Amino acid sequence: MEQTTMIHLDGIHKTYQGAQPLHVLKGISLDIKKGEFVSIMGASGSGKSTLLNILGILDNYDEGEYLLNGVLIKNLSETKAADYRNRMIGFIFQSFNLIPFKNAMENVALPLYYQGVSRRKRNALALEYLERLGLKEWAHHLPSELSGGQKQRVAIARAIIAHPQIILADEPTGALDSKTSEEVMQLLRDLNEKKGMTIVVVTHESGVAYRTHKVIHIKDGIIGKIEENKTMEGQPYLK
Amino acid sequence: MRIFDLDKWSETFETLMRNKSRSFLTAFGIFWGLFMFSLLMGGGQGLESLMAKNFEGIAQNSCFLIPGQTTKTYKGLQSGRQWNLRAADAQLLKHRVKGIDLCEPVILGENPTPRYKDKTTYGTVKGVNPEYAAMENPHIIYGRFINQTDCDQERKVCVIGMRVREELFPDTPNPCGKFIELDSIYYEVVGVSNMKSNVGTGGGNSQQTIMLPFTTAQKIYQKGDRADMLVYTAAPGHTVTEIEEAVNTVIKEEHLIAPDDDQALFSINLEKLFQVIDNLFAGIRFLVWLIGIGTLISGTIGVSNIMMVTVKERTTEIGIRRAIGARPSNILWQIMAESMVLTLFAGLLGIVISVLILQGVEMGIAASTGVEAKFQLSFGMALSAFGVLMMLGTLAGVAPSLRALAIKPIEALTDE
């Protein structure tokens, strides 16, 4: 496997301005290589969500440097940020975040809409991805007609349809039972192992974290320890 | 940005269609606004044209002069004296009043019962000179109007109104050459008039008027040298109001009426009448515009308002779109396009329905009274309403899209 750096963070600081400025990230330096399957673990308030937002170009940082696949991500315009998100990053959220009035296929195809791919082409591609995830017969159902696991699989299909460089998953199993959690994590693992996709999972759940290759512990805005997790076995889900 | 991107339009359309009740509620304000606007416009216009029908064919710069009773003693004459106009007064006025154009004496006959064979009807008789046609267009549809020879030879000929023709000659569209009987005297019909104005001089419906040569009427009704009424018009460059005073002065002088006795003669200045009606309709038009535009604006604000709420409600959707790569311009376009499509669709529907209703009203009025009033919106009016609509749609979209732009994906996507 090629070992080029996909994510390079160097001394990232982030402070939320307010009545009482909140220094959330206090110098995060981190390298994630291409093809890695990494989890960022921490308690709530540890800054892991902020880190994920910065990784996902949803938020700016104050200090430091963030290179995504060699591209400096700093002070981008909204338009530029949107383009990078569209082409480089696939998001998976705890609450799925599917658009309720669009069916599964259209939800999956949405990133391609913003790339200007024609309707027929993107729908065909979306069907292909849904089929790969075993959701072909659900393609024309609205999110409200799908189970949690199905919704998350639709979201995963949406995340990978534009061939992003990385997948960012924010508590991907947070709203799922342990059985479907297992399925979703297996799916992510397959994506990582078979497609060589770089995946970063943010979680507070060790059961999820220990299903990734590397666990990055974050505490009070700094990185605690980084654990290699060769066996990928171990802890059960805390459900 | 590609505005004529079919895919973007269909995306807009789908979003609207999948959220039917929301779209309906949003669109209703505009629909109602334009519906009421068009209806008001058409209604105001129709009313005006109905009113105008009453005056059709009458010279607007004319004035009627009718003798009355004196109210003041003058030069040894008692007050309360009934005086009469003379046919010769017409010539006199033409000579002495500057700015007078036409001046015609008119005989108002009794109301005889016109008869043709076994058929009778109701009619009013008027004795006129040929020049009278210039003041009240007779709309001759068959035959001809009274001519000079008729007057010179005191011929017993007549021009009958449309209603009279219908009643007396139901099976003969063109009764010219037939003789009708008025008070035991036979007159040859030489023309049929389709005059429609309802302010027929000397009263009566112009459709039921029977016109005789002036001299004939003078003789038959034993008027001597008298005339019952004078009708005059102002020459181009003059107004009736300008010459009215001069005319009255000459007449008063001629008939020994006190110069300050204003009640001795009735002067009906049509110009003033039209002025009043014009002003009335200008007022109505102004009101219609005011209400119409007010309704439109409130409709637009309504749409804008609901879109604002909608955007708030769609925060998550917009956040998702932004997170997976929608540019700010995409979001701006989306909200604007939705607003525009809604306004356009609802507005067009409003125009179409009001046009249908106006058409119905127009046809209903035509069917029940035979008057063809113009209620329908003109194409230009519809087109400009359409233009205004586009503008309103865009305007209504501005505030909501700005609000949508302010949505940050992280805020929208946080679950807490």
TrEMBL record, chain A:
<keyword id="KW-0547">Nucleotide-binding</keyword>
<feature type="domain" description="ABC transporter">
    <location>
        <begin position="7"/>
        <end position="238"/>
    </location>
</feature>
<keyword id="KW-0813">Transport</keyword>
<dbReference type="InterPro" id="IPR017871">
    <property type="entry name" value="ABC_transporter-like_CS"/>
</dbReference>
<dbReference type="GO" id="GO:0016887">
    <property type="term" value="F:ATP hydrolysis activity"/>
</dbReference>
<dbReference type="InterPro" id="IPR003593">
    <property type="entry name" value="AAA+_ATPase"/>
</dbReference>
<dbReference type="InterPro" id="IPR015854">
    <property type="entry name" value="ABC_transpr_LolD-like"/>
</dbReference>
<dbReference type="InterPro" id="IPR003439">
    <property type="entry name" value="ABC_transporter-like_ATP-bd"/>
</dbReference>
<dbReference type="GO" id="GO:0022857">
    <property type="term" value="F:transmembrane transporter activity"/>
</dbReference>
<keyword id="KW-0067">ATP-binding</keyword>
<dbReference type="GO" id="GO:0098796">
    <property type="term" value="C:membrane protein complex"/>
</dbReference>
<dbReference type="GO" id="GO:0005524">
    <property type="term" value="F:ATP binding"/>
</dbReference>
<protein>
    <submittedName>
        <fullName>Putative ABC transport system ATP-binding protein</fullName>
    </submittedName>
</protein>
<dbReference type="GO" id="GO:0005886">
    <property type="term" value="C:plasma membrane"/>
</dbReference>
<dbReference type="Pfam" id="PF00005">
    <property type="entry name" value="ABC_tran"/>
</dbReference>
<dbReference type="InterPro" id="IPR027417">
    <property type="entry name" value="P-loop_NTPase"/>
</dbReference>
<dbReference type="InterPro" id="IPR017911">
    <property type="entry name" value="MacB-like_ATP-bd"/>
</dbReference>
<comment type="similarity">
    <text>Belongs to the ABC transporter superfamily. Macrolide exporter (TC 3.A.1.122) family.</text>
</comment>
From TrEMBL, chain B:
<feature type="domain" description="MacB-like periplasmic core">
    <location>
        <begin position="23"/>
        <end position="249"/>
    </location>
</feature>
<feature type="transmembrane region" description="Helical">
    <location>
        <begin position="24"/>
        <end position="44"/>
    </location>
</feature>
<dbReference type="InterPro" id="IPR003838">
    <property type="entry name" value="ABC3_permease_C"/>
</dbReference>
<dbReference type="GO" id="GO:0022857">
    <property type="term" value="F:transmembrane transporter activity"/>
</dbReference>
<dbReference type="InterPro" id="IPR050250">
    <property type="entry name" value="Macrolide_Exporter_MacB"/>
</dbReference>
<feature type="transmembrane region" description="Helical">
    <location>
        <begin position="377"/>
        <end position="399"/>
    </location>
</feature>
<dbReference type="Pfam" id="PF02687">
    <property type="entry name" value="FtsX"/>
</dbReference>
<feature type="transmembrane region" description="Helical">
    <location>
        <begin position="286"/>
        <end position="311"/>
    </location>
</feature>
<comment type="similarity">
    <text>Belongs to the ABC-4 integral membrane protein family.</text>
</comment>
<keyword id="KW-1133">Transmembrane helix</keyword>
<keyword id="KW-0472">Membrane</keyword>
<dbReference type="InterPro" id="IPR025857">
    <property type="entry name" value="MacB_PCD"/>
</dbReference>
<protein>
    <submittedName>
        <fullName>Putative ABC transport system permease protein</fullName>
    </submittedName>
</protein>
<dbReference type="Pfam" id="PF12704">
    <property type="entry name" value="MacB_PCD"/>
</dbReference>
<feature type="transmembrane region" description="Helical">
    <location>
        <begin position="331"/>
        <end position="357"/>
    </location>
</feature>
<feature type="domain" description="ABC3 transporter permease C-terminal">
    <location>
        <begin position="290"/>
        <end position="409"/>
    </location>
</feature>
<dbReference type="GO" id="GO:0005886">
    <property type="term" value="C:plasma membrane"/>
</dbReference>
<keyword id="KW-0812">Transmembrane</keyword>
<keyword id="KW-1003">Cell membrane</keyword>
